[in-house]
Amino acid sequence: MSVFGVRERLLGLLRPGQSAQLAGPERVVVRFVLPSGAEGRVMARVGETLLRASSRLAVPIFQGCHDQSCAECLVEMSPGGEARACVVTVPPGGASARVKQLWSMEQVRGDD
Ligand code: FES
Q: Does the beta carbon of 82 lie inside 6 Å of ligand 1?
């Protein structure tokens, strides 16, 4: 589990009812092709954003804003073309996306 997945786990422990809801039956595989060419797969709930699903990768998709305005989170959906990971949601049947930018340690630390 990445450090970015800790928040969701803690919320599940603090709110067991919500945890059961989060672990609901509509979970599908999302495949991410990372900038390095490596592949990462995570389980995701249908309807959650790709950005949120990527929090289960070792390093999540870079998030440049909180109002869907920066386009730093662009991914290439297959099929579907370019989309903002903070907007596009996981469809029934799962998804496949080529990631353009992940968080760097400098960005996490706020050094850039
Ligand atoms: S994080 Fe800025 S548009 Fe998605």
A: no
